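Researcher: Going back to the complex we discussed earlier. I've cleaned up the inputs and rechecked each line, so this should be the final set. Can you rerun the prediction on the complete assembly and write out the structure?
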Amino acid sequence: MIECKNISKTYVNGDVETQAVRGLNFKIEKGEFVAIIGPSGSGKSSLMHILGALDTPTSGEYFLDGKEVSKLNDDDLSDLRREKIGFVFQSFNLLPRTTVLRNVTLPLLFSDATQKEREQRAREALKYAGMEESKFNNLSNQLSGGQMQRVAIARSLINNPAIILADEPTGNLDTKTSHVVMQTFLELNSRGHTIVLITHEPEIAEFAQRVITIRDGLIESDIKKK
Amino acid sequence: MIKDLLNETIWSLAGNKVRSGLTILGIVIGIASVITMVAIGQGSQASIQARIQSIGSNLIIVSPGAQRTAGVSAGQGSAQSLKLEDANAIMSEVQNVAGVAPEDTHRYQVTAKGNNTNTQITGTVPDYTIVRNVAIDSGTFITAYQNQTSAKVAVIGPGVRDDLFGAGVDPTGQTIRIKNIDFQVIGLTVSKGGTGFNNADDAIYIPLSTEQHYLSGDTYITTISVSAQDSTILPTVQNDLTDLLLQRHGISDSTQADFSTINQADIIATASSITGTFTMLLASIAGISLLVGGIGIMNMMLTTVTERTREIGLRKAVGIRKIYINLQFLSEAVVLTFLGGAVGVLLGWLAALAVTKFAGITTQVSLSTVVLAFGVSAGVGIIFGFYPARRAASLSPIEALRYE
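Model: Rerun complete. Updated structure for the full complex:
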């Protein structure tokens, strides 16, 4: 499903070069629930952005479903993100002053789906993500943190993606809400979605079946639970 | 797809009413001020030209020169050098003359029915109406017969009518007293507008012979108005009549002439240069408003897009293609500038009408100004609404999302 061959990412800021990812090699199979863990500055976010096709690696090859992603142009990357990847951000990134339904249907804009189909799919995704139906027409800024993250998860699910990537999805949530959100991910995984999440909390990583630890842009350990 | 685009545009603009409102306001003020200012400038220019045209058509005015007593000049027109015979000679000897109206104008106290006023009494001939574009509202103008017989009749302007009889009253048949002599009012002229010393409405016209016999008591006249047949031959007629008068007055050196002539083209040229300066002044003020308005629009658009770079990043992150993001921002900018533009044009036009109605200044809204004002605002709005958004849409989604 996911295959990384010697990918690295270097940021250039003036004369200073920072190597965030230094030649990583790993594979993630369909249906896996993987946590990528590491301290801040370890390069896990950069890796996540490459996996989510939000950014391209400086060198190396990244295959998603057998397709070489690093060679795609801007429009192909957009199509790939829309069709294959659901991305959940730490800061939710919902459109402000916008209803829950409208937020969830955002990836369907300019698609062939009719308004009715879009709303139907959004309702399903929201229920799937555990959102109460009474809040579907609320504005995004009237929601609690946990609710916002559920809306964000529903948005990532709307195109039924092959893989869901979550960048510190519990980073802005309290412990109790974090656990509820993680339960949602477990449930999604049990329904066959491939999930990759990054976190710096070992407690959150415990939910996953496989934990990849990253330090200074390199894989330190890769442990699969039985 | 187009439905989505419109839907998104409306939602985005309606969802940020303050932001959209302020942007539109900037455009409205910029456009409206330019349209109003230039309308005032051009309207004034047109009205001044119309007023100059109203004093007569293809007119040449001959006035006596300055009277000199031991080297001291009493000013232009003070000399007594023109006579009725000069006017008659111009009529009969100069080519291409349509009409000649000699006048002798002095100010006297006039009374009627216990009211009195001090106004200019012009003794003249029937041709005066042709030469000076005087129209009669009620009654008749002076006839040749009345002039021959020195009849004590008067045609009064609406200003005099208002002073002596009250506004709206038909004065024909009434009697007025000038210098203790009774005159019968036989006509009322149509108002020409105008104010100040040369107010054509505040005047009384009587036969020239009557004026010379009963009022001034001499044979001199103060002005000869000559109307040429065509505006193109105005300078030729002016030269011809100058030569004729020099010859008649026995003067060989034209610099020593005891009279002066001025033609209407010169007056219009002078007035046009004055009103042109005035229009330029207003246009510069308007230009500055447009510039300030433009900078306002630019600021608003730039701030908006900067604010929305994160939104653009999100849209890209969820897989919306760059082209659709560009189209949406372009459509937002177009809708904002066109809404603002339409309101601005309407407001500018209404303001021009209001200026005409309440301040009494003639205004003229011209299409070129509307197009210019609209074009500049729309251009600025669209460029600064679209260009930064296009740049943001070209960033990688992560860069755009992290944008502060």
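Model: Worth noting: Chain B touches chain A through 25 residues (CB under 8 Å).
Researcher: Good, that matches what I expected from the previous run.
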